[in-house]
Amino acid sequence: MNQNASEPTAVDALLESFSRIPELLHNVVDDIDADLLTTQPQLPEGHPGNSIGWIVWHIGRMEDAQVAAITDAPEVYADGWAERLGTPYAADTHGYGMSAGDVARFTVSSPSALTDYYDAVHARTVEVLQSTPAGGLSRVVDERWDPPVTALVRLVSVVDDAAQHAGQAAYIKGLLQD
């Protein structure tokens, strides 16, 4: 082991983890049309599932809201993204608890607008991580849980959720294109 090299930090691990999400989303979205983006696959029970576009939108909204809450800063979405995306939901909507009917109402101005929004969210996440002070990840950000949730635990949850949803979107793309 190189004695002059410093050990990776939790921030380094989070930056590496979050750096993988944009490529996953671009691989799903960049070459599909708006119809495929909003198509809801039919689940075995006959109920419609989440569309690729809705999933990608939810990933962005979820990460945006969680990072903003950790930093006590406005969401990236507040910078005119509702209008640019053209989604039919209230500005404080993130996708949690939505019905199949709510998901069916999903529209977006274009596939590129969706990835542009996520890219802006990702840039903000990277900026926040790179400016995290020593000990900043151990700060409690949610006391509603036992044990209380630290910034580190919340960010690990965000990247885990994003990676799982990105996999769902890729799977749906494969199903719908075959």
From TrEMBL:
User: Which SUPFAM superfamilies does the protein's record reference?
Assistant: DinB/YfiT-like putative metalloenzymes
Taken from the record, one Pfam family name reads DinB_2
Gene3D superfamilies from the entry? dinb family like domain
Q: Which InterPro entries does its entry note?
A: DinB-like (IPR024775), DinB/YfiT-like (IPR034660)
Q: Which residues form the DinB-like domain?
A: 18-169
Q: Which domain of life is it from?
A: Bacteria
Naturally occurring in which organism (per UniProt): Micropruina glycogenica
Q: What is this protein called?
A: DinB-like domain-containing protein
